[in-house]
Amino acid sequence: MKAENRKIRSGETADRGATAPRRLLLVKPRVALRRELAERLRDAGYQVTEAASGRRALTLCAARSFEVVICDWDLPDIGGAAFCHDFRALERTAECYLLVLAGSEAGHEILQGLDAGADDFVTLPINGHKLLARLGVGERVLRVEAELRASNAQLRAALDKLRDTQAAIERDLMEARKLQQGLVRERSGRFGDFELSLLLRPAGHIGGDLVGFFPIGTDRIGLYALDVSGHGVTAALLTAQLSVHLSGASDQNVALRAAQAGSDAVPPAALAHFFNNMMLEEMSTDTYFTMIYAELNHVTGLVRMVQAGHPHPMLQGGDGRIRAIGQGGMPIGVFENPIFDEIEFQLDPGARLLIASDGITEAASPGGRQLGEEGLEAIMRTNAFLGGHAFLESMAWSVSEYCRGERPDDMSAVLIEYLKPAEPVPIHGR
């Protein structure tokens, strides 16, 4: 080292704070200069290992972990660019800061070395303050890289935990879907000349729609379609509770409790008021639901129905003409003194009544246009030759095609068909 080089004074250290000494490898062929510089680096707080050649340094780096490497650009056994390249090719568990010492005229070599993997250069002759300043930069770089590695490790651990949690939630939701689908005990029923078919298709794992029916005495059946506001667990839990109140068990079914005492079943409008009071008085929630509940006399074809905010049922006569039934009414669980729409009408042989949720009528195309009642009428006309579950599945397919599979809401429906008596087949030739 030339006499004009400023020495690294004892006590001068790079920017390391209170951390343990950095492991530093000094690669310099000339013994006297290497040992002099190594001693000064030790005085500056580094744990120094010396190497006289580039290949020896690579061997040491392959066997041990260094945090800082200082090497000459002009190495007799291997060029500076080759050393930087081979050094970066080594497998290491931690980052290492590579600082190269080069002559002041080595402008092209500096660019070549940076491209080969060097982090920084210090030009000769060595200035003690300048070297420590460059090592301080390296310290900060290594500290930031260590913090990033720690943060990435924490992030990976959090993501792994999140994936495990999500997988557990996914399994629970799949089981919840099976349980919710089990709330619809029967998907079809035959009562005299009437055939009932049900469709329940949640948009996600679980939903807030519910459809079903139950017998009332010997000549009537109760049928319902509910749509709880929102989606997910909250809606599904309320749906499950409502299914208990509308189950086939007479001791739990709200509509059948009066029948147990020997009187008639609860009328449709009274049932809507019961649920409205239950929602406002017993449940601390902002959730509400819409409902169609009807009594069908399967002997006479008379229908008594309450509409509580649910989409209009569509009545298709035997002649194919379609009309919407009802005025709408108010949803359940919103107003203290609601007005529900009470309807009474007659079904004739060959007619069918479709009660569909807004997941069908409000299904939107990619352009944002809703299917609406006109679109539902078109589907009913197109599928007039189908009945029962074949009709419902074709309708569900048409809705999915209309919205290109992007269906954000649950889809449910009840189809009531008044089957025409079979016409006698004339026998010719007699």
Task: Present the secondary structure layout.
Layout: E1 23-27, H1 31-43, E2 47-51, H2 54-63, E3 68-72, H3 80-89, E4 97-103, H4 107-116, E5 120-124, H5 128-181, E6 188-191, E7 194-201, E8 209-216, E9 220-228, H6 232-245, H7 257-260, H8 268-282, E10 289-297, E11 302-308, E12 314-316, E13 322-324, E14 341-346, E15 352-356, H9 358-361, H10 372-382, H11 388-402, E16 411-418
Parallel strand pairs: 1-2, 1-3, 3-4, 4-5
Antiparallel strand pairs: 6-7, 7-16, 8-9, 9-10, 10-11, 11-14, 12-13, 12-15, 15-16
Helix pairs in contact: 2-3, 3-4
Pfam families: Response_reg (PF00072), SpoIIE (PF07228)
Keywords: Coiled coil, Hydrolase, Phosphoprotein
Modified residues (4-aspartylphosphate): 72
Commentary on this structure:
With 430 residues, this protein is an alpha+beta fold. The protein has two domains: 23-151, Rossmann fold (3-Layer(aba) Sandwich); 182-418, 4-Layer Sandwich (Phosphatase 2c, domain 1). Helices cover 37% and strands 23% of the residues. The chain is built from eleven helices and 16 strands. It has helices at residues 31-43, 54-63, 80-89, 107-116, 128-181, 232-245, 257-260, 268-282, 358-361, 372-382, 388-402, and strands at residues 23-27, 47-51, 68-72, 97-103, 120-124, 188-191, 194-201, 209-216, 220-228, 289-297, 302-308, 314-316, 322-324, 341-346, 352-356, 411-418. The chain has a six-stranded antiparallel sheet with strand order 6-7-16-15-12-13. It has a five-stranded parallel sheet with strand order 2-1-3-4-5, with helices on both faces. Helix 2 runs parallel beside helix 3 and helix 3 packs parallel to helix 4 (107-116). The radius of gyration is 40 Å and the shape is rod-shaped. It starts with 22 loop residues before the first strand and ends in a 12-residue tail after the last strand. The model is unreliable at 1-11 (pLDDT under 50). Keywords: Coiled coil, Hydrolase, Phosphoprotein. Residues 141-179 form a coiled coil. This is SpoIIE family protein phosphatase.
